Give the backbone structure.
Amino acid sequence: MPNRKTYDVIVVGARCAGSATAMLLARRGHSVLLLDRDTFPSDMEASTHLIWQGGVARLARWGLLDRLKATNCPAMRNVSLDLGGLVLRGQPPPDGTAAEAYAPRRRALDEVLLEAAQEAGVEFHPSSAVRGLVTTSGRASGVSWVDATGSVFEAGAQQVVGADGPNSIVARAVSAAVQDEHPHLQGIIWSYFGNLPVDGLEFFARPGRMVLAWSTNDGQTLVGSCVRYDDYAELAKDPDAGMRAELLSLTPTLGERVQASQRASRWRTRATQGLRRQASGPGWALVGDAGVTMDPITAAGITNAFRDADLLSDAIHDGLTGSRPLDDVVARFGAERDAVSVPLFEFAREMAKLDPPPQPMIDLFSALPGQQDAIDAYFGVFAQTVPVTRFFAPDNVARIITGANKRASG
């Protein structure tokens, strides 16, 4: 193909993981091509778009938090978990100075990230559908794509990054190994409402359900429910009637607020599953949902994407500027990613089953009231400011239960 241009890095997918990775590499002086089949700004309907404190801290470090705030997206500090007979309320430990969570609509968040990437020098091509990867001696060395006019293009790169979601074309092209997966455990149904007050992030755990609500841009509130998969298809047939009835029955305090508010969008439905792929190989790497698609019941997707972008951009930069082979340096990204994501992946999988909690978990939840630091730390698992393995370590669980026993006896 004539006049094929070559870049240091080509990133496929310009949403959270892709724009962030491209931006971070361009800020360090690397030439980056960013491709996406969509046009921007645009919404992403399969996202409930919550950014926990662990992700907000990265936006702050990247100098983008003020831009996010300017999109008229409210900050949220309080978290509540209504377990039926027990309600836990607290605030996750901050990540540095990032003490609040945000849930910006994707048309707002993705535009902030994409603008920052282009300001850093990233070359962006929207409406560009990737057809496949170019390989040289078994190593990914470029990408071919077609634009909105049907014209075909090709470009070369030292590194190709797939940030193109669970159905990643890059992952399929390189036959990235699936390291862990689980089938549909639940589906999620959600919509947006105007004039619906919430106190931060509200969760309601019920048999076979996890109801959720939080604020987003322009005075709207997202309300949804994670539904056991066996029940999901039936409820999704008529989500407005079904969801309103369920909310009034299962969570009257939220259901009454929903009844008194105005629905601002159609109900959205999505069946969910989990997938973890090999992180990198010769000339390629995967970030965000392309590498690890976590069940959305923990709302970890965007926070994970930002983490991946940080880790992978560091590795690629070191590989492009150092003396070791690029593939060897990029390979460390997988180990760093999995050290955090594997415990979170397993935690989300267990939650997504929406089973009644086992007795040890009942004992733990029953011991939390009156121990605010422990409640906050539990919410910190979701905020990614407290590692899953640390909170659920046997000695920490024993400390919490011992603390409850001491309060009861004294």
About this structure: The chain has three domains: 5-50+103-177+278-350, 184-272, 359-409. The chain has 14 helices and 17 strands.
